[in-house]
Amino acid sequence: MTEAASPRPLALVTGASSGIGLELAKQFADNGFDLIVVAEDGELDAAKLQLQQRGAAVSDIRADLRQRPEVEKVVAAVRGAGRPLDAAALNAGVGVGGPFVETDLDAELDLVALNCVSTMHLAKRVAQDMVARNAGRILFTSSVASQAPQPFQAVYGASKAFVQSLALALREEIASTDVTVTAMLPGPTDTEFFDRAELTDTALGAMENKDDPAQVAAQGFAGLMKGEATVFAGSLASKAMGRLSAMTPDTVAAKTVKPMAAPGSGGS
After folding, report:
1. What's the pLDDT tens digit per position in 207-236?
2. Which residue among 33, 88, 115, 119 has its CA within the 20 to 30 Å range from the CA of 70?
3. How many domains does the chain have?
4. What is the pTM of this model?
């Protein structure tokens, strides 16, 4: 995918094999972007085909972003694409559910490595290049979970608070440039997240009216293109939940959230 071969802008999407990441990649493809898509799992091949069928030239990278050399492999591929990167959707992330004193330490260290460390690492490299060019857009997938402490998802909630703070701080730092930074905050969304985080037995995981990832991605993409700072993406209920959490004292918010993620709260 060289600049001479295609006049289309280029976007990077991490966690692009399914869920919100795949839907974000579709938004870019449908709006005239070529793509570099990144994921660890085998679903990436099928995702690449879907995106190619939408008219995008797609380069796929299988990478475990928990590992620093793997992140640099993605950076090298982006910088070696022969054309500038116009947009980056830093979306890859996982959850771990359960009581903090019982959850697996290795799983939570992996969560921090992916959600926090790799996001910061990629953001650093992408922002450096975009600021040098004075052009580009960066989208961070945050979460409504970033707005309040998350009992029984303690490390996940903390990781998203990190992402949210990083996104808004970076936005302010580079406000004098033509590079925009947007944080997207989805609510409970119908993806593989709850299965992977072992949250299916919770009231949150058992919700039948989770948001459509395509709707979340469309709203996030629109906000990115407008250069908005923060996008509460999804249903009206999810947007209201996010804004209410942001205005509620942390101690009160934690007590409110707690029953939703408590193990066994989803009933039979």
Report:
1. 888 999 999 999 999 999 999 999 999 888
2. 33
3. 1
4. 0.93
